[in-house]
Design brief:
Helix content: over 70%
Order of helices and strands: HHHHHHHHHHHHHHHEEHHH
Number of helices: 18
Mean pLDDT: 93
Bound molecules: tryptophan
Largest sheet: 2 strands, antiparallel
Oligomer: single chain
Strand content: under 5%
Radius of gyration: 21 Å
Number of strands: 2
Shape: globular
Strand order of the largest sheet: 1-2
Distance between the termini: 49 Å
Structural class: mainly alpha
Length: 457
C-alpha cells in the first residue's frame, strides 16, 4: 500500500520528507525578503508568534486528518467528515494552491540552478553593482530562466514517477545537516564584514514605527508558506505516517527546525546587505544580489574557499528546493491517481505540464514580455500574493473550523493521542489546549487579520 501510494519507505524517512517539504526557498529566499520589506525585527516577532499560536496547531490538524484517512487530500477531508458536507472542497482548494505555488516556486528554484552553474563558471565575480546588474539581466532574459524553471519541474517529475523518494530521504539525512552547518559558516562570514552590525540590529532590534499596514498578513502568510501549511500538503504526507508517530511532537520539531533555518538565513543576508549597500527592501531579488558579495568579500583573502562555499551553498539550496517541490507535486499526483484512476505517470504529467506553463508565464512577467500582469502586479508577484496571503490562510482557516467543529471530537482526540507514548492526564490536557486553539484561536486570529488587511477593522 505504502509503496503504491508514493514509495516512502521508513518511519523516519517520512518525517524527514515532511521536514524537507518545510525547509526550502521559503526560509532562505522568501523569509529574508519579507523581513526586509517589513522593517526587520518587529516582523520576525510577529512571524514567530504566528508559528507558535497558529502554525503548530494548524500542522497538527493536517496531520490528524491525513493520518486518520490515509488517502489523498480531497478524500481525506471527505472521510474524516463522516462523508457529510462538502469538505472535500478544502482538499481541492489545497491541490489548486499547491499547483500555483509550484508554478512560481520553480522560477526561483531555476534561478538557484543558474547561480549554481554561474558560480561554478566564476561568472558572479564583481562588485555589488555588477552582481545586481547580473541578476537584472538574467531574470529578464526571455529564454534562460524559463528553461531552468521547466528543467526544475522536470527533475521533480522524474523523482515522483521513478519512485526514488527513498534515495532522496537517505540523501536528506546527510544534506540537511550540511545545509545547517554551511549556513552557520556563512553567517559568521557575513557578520565579519565591515558595517555588519547595522544588519544585526535590523534583525533583532524591533522598530515598530517601520511596520507597514500589511505586516500582520505578511507574517501570517510567511509562517504558513514556510511550514507548507494550508494546502493539505502536510495532510498528504501524514497519510504515510505510522501510528507510532507523535503528531504534536513532530509538528513542534519541524516548526523549530524551520524557524532556526529562517533566522539563520536572515543572519546570513542582512549583515552582508547592509555592509555592501543592498537595500533590505529589494524584494524577491534580495538574496541573489547579496550572496555573491558575501562569497567574494568575506573570503577575499582565501578566494578558493569562497568559491567552494558558494558552489556548495547553491547546490544545497537546490536540493532543499527540490524536497519542497516534490511535496507540492505529490499532492496533485496522489489526487489525480486515486480520484481519476489514472496511472501515476499520467497524473504526474498533468501537473508537470500545467505547472511548466504557469512557470513560463511567471518568468516572462518579470521583464521579458510586458503586460503579463494581474491586478497591476507581474504574474509571479500575483501568484505569490494570492497563494501565500489569501489561499494558504483560507485553507488553514477552513481546516481549523473543520477539525474543531465538524469532525467527531472523540475521533479527533483518539487520533491526536495515538502515538503519544504516555497517555495520561497531561496528554489529555494538551489535547484540550489543542482543541481550544483550533476551535477559537486559529480561526479567530486568521479572520481578524483578514478583516484588518481589507480595511474593515
Ligand atoms: N515550505 C516550503 C518552503 O519553505 C514551500 C512549500 C512546500 C509549500 N510545500 C508547500 C508551501 C505547500 C505551501 C504549501 O520553501
Amino acid at each position: 500500500m505504502d509503496i503504491k501510494r508514493g514509495g516512502f519507505a521508513s518511519k523516519l524517512g517520512i518525517i524527514l520528507a515532511t521536514a524537507g517539504s518545510a525547509v526550502g526557498l521559503g526560509n532562505v529566499w522568501r523569509f529574508p525578503y519579507m523581513t526586509g520589506e517589513n522593517g526587520g525585527a518587529a516582523f520576525i516577532l510577529l512571524y514567530i508568534g504566528c508559528i507558535l499560536l497558529l502554525g503548530i496547531p494548524g500542522m497538527v490538524s493536517e496531520f490528524v486528518i491525513g493520518r486518520y484517512a490515509q488517502s489523498n487530500a480531497a478524500r481525506a477531508y471527505h472521510k474524516m467528515s463522516g462523508k457529510r458536507g462538502l469538505w472535500q472542497l478544502v482538499g481541492h482548494l489545497g491541490i489548486l494552491t499547491s499547483t500555483i505555488i509550484l508554478g512560481f516556486y520553480a522560477v526561483v528554484a531555476g534561478w538557484c540552478l543558474q547561480y549554481l552553474f554561474a558560480s561554478l563558471a566564476g561568472q558572479l565575480n564583481g562588485d555589488s553593482s555588477y552582481v545586481s546588474e547580473y541578476f537584472r539581466n538574467f531574470s529578464s532574459n526571455p529564454w534562460k530562466p524559463c528553461l531552468w524553471a521547466v528543467a526544475f519541474i522536470l527533475i521533480t517529475h522524474l523523482v515522483i514517477v521513478r519512485g526514488v523518494q527513498r534515495g532522496i530521504e537517505r540523501a536528506s539525512k546527510l544534506l540537511m545537516p550540511m545545509l545547517l552547518v554551511l549556513l552557520l559558516v556563512i553567517v559568521v562570514a557575513s557578520c565579519s564584514l565591515p558595517g555588519a552590525m547595522a544588519g544585526i540590529e535590523f534583525l533583532f532590534k524591533p522598530d515598530f514605527s517601520k511596520v507597514s499596514h500589511s505586516v500582520l498578513l505578511d507574517a501570517l502568510g510567511q509562517a504558513f508558506f514556510s511550514l507548507s501549511l494550508g494546502t493539505a500538503c502536510l495532510c498528504t504526507y501524514a497519510s504515510y505516517f505510522s501510528r507510532e508517530t507523535n503528531l504534536l511532537k513532530s509538528a513542534g520539531q519541524i516548526a523549530l527546525l524551520d524557524t532556526i533555518i529562517a533566522i539563520l538565513a536572515g543572519l546570513m543576508i542582512f549583515p552582508a546587505a547592509f555592509s555592501v549597500g543592498v537595500q533590505p527592501d529589494s524584494g524577491p531579488s534580495l538574496i541573489f544580489i547579496t550572496l555573491p558579495n558575501v562569497f567574494q568579500q568575506a573570503f577575499a583573502t582565501m578566494p578558493m574557499i569562497g568559491y567552494v562555499i558558494g558552489i556548495l551553498f547553491y547546490a544545497l539550496l537546490v536540493f532543499a528546493a527540490l524536497t519542497s517541490t516534490i511535496s507540492m507535486h505529490e499532492i496533485g499526483t496522489a489526487f489525480f491517481t486515486e480520484e481519476l484512476h489514472r496511472p501515476r505517470k499520467q497524473s504526474a504529467w498533468i501537473l508537470t505540464i500545467t505547472c511548466s506553463l504557469l512557470a513560463i508565464g511567471c518568468s516572462l512577467s518579470l521583464g521579458a514580455v510586458d503586460g503579463i500582469k494581474l491586478f497591476g502586479k507581474p504574474l509571479l508577484d500575483f501568484c505569490d500574493f494570492i497563494t501565500a496571503q489569501i489561499m494558504l490562510p483560507l485553507g488553514a482557516f477552513l481546516t481549523s473550523l473543520f477539525a474543531g467543529w465538524f469532525v467527531n471530537q472523540q475521533l479527533l482526540k483518539q487520533e491526536f493521542l495515538t502515538g503519544i507514548r504516555h497517555n495520561n492526564n497531561v496528554s489529555t490536557a494538551i489535547f484540550h489546549a489543542y482543541q481550544f486553539s483550533v476551535r477559537f484561536i486559529v480561526p479567530l486570529c486568521i479572520l481578524l487579520i483578514f478583516l484588518h488587511q481589507f480595511g474593515i477593522l
